[in-house]
Amino acid sequence: MSDEMKEAAKTEEKAMSEETKTEPKKVDSKKEKKENEEISKLQNELAEMTKKFETAEKNFEAADKNAEDWKNKYYEAYADMSNVRKQIQKESDDFKKYAVEKFVKDIIPALDSFDYALKKEQSDPALQKYLEGFLMINNKFLDAFKAHDIQVIQAQKGEEYDPNLMEAFSSIDGEEDNKVVDVFLKGYKLHDHLLRPCGVIISKKAEVQPTEDKKDTVESDKKDEK
């Protein structure tokens, strides 16, 4: 072979060798690009999933808070309903308990008339029979009162005046203050409601008036002080 042909062969061989060396590099570059794209895609998907997870977590926290709020509102509503139910029950019980209050107040004056009549002594046998009948009717009323828990307040002479159960219509001089001297009206009480206080007369301790000698002594002492 001539030198020119040898040189051409060497040049072609060198070119083929360089082409062979560069081809793998091109293949590696494509592979790397593809891998980078896959990695980028996975990173984007991971970021998207992280974002969705954070959003779901916030929604869950909000839902949990809302559930707690609704639970508290339920307990409050339940407590309110329970209180309303108790109040309605109490009002219903009180209505039944004191339903006869007005009726009893209307009956009391009739019982006062019986009391006035029974206090008077009668020598006439015919009138005495009437009084016995009045007493029987009066006792019937009192038995009915007792059955409905209506108490008769009967103050006793000499006992301490109780303003919660008694009403003093007048007072007279006595040795002690606030003692029952006379009773002229019975009192009545329905359960814990006072329908009418017991009408009484109470005592008031009389003021001791100084005698003439004491007056002179007091006036003399005043002059000496001056």
What would you note in describing this structure?
α2 runs antiparallel to α3 (125-147). With 226 residues, this protein is of the alpha+beta class. The chain has four helices and six strands; from the N terminus they run αααββββββα. The strands form two sheets. Strands 1-4-5 form a three-stranded antiparallel beta sheet. 67% of the residues lie in helices and 15% in strands. It folds into two domains: 12-97; 101-205, Head domain of nucleotide exchange factor GrpE (Nucleotide Exchange Factor Grpe, Chain A, domain 2).
Quick overview:
The protein is an alpha+beta fold.
Fold blueprint:
Layout: H1 3-97, H2 101-119, H3 125-147, E1 150-153, E2 166-174, E3 180-185, E4 187-190, E5 193-196, E6 198-205, H4 212-225
Parallel strand pairs: 2-6
Antiparallel strand pairs: 1-4, 3-6, 4-5
- Globally, the shape reads rod-shaped
CATH topology of the largest domain: Nucleotide Exchange Factor Grpe, Chain A, domain 2
Low-pLDDT windows of residues: 22-27
Proportion in helices: 55-70%
Features:
three-stranded antiparallel β-sheet; three-stranded mixed β-sheet; 2 domains; Nucleotide Exchange Factor Grpe, Chain A, domain 2; single chain; 6 strands; alpha+beta; 226 residues
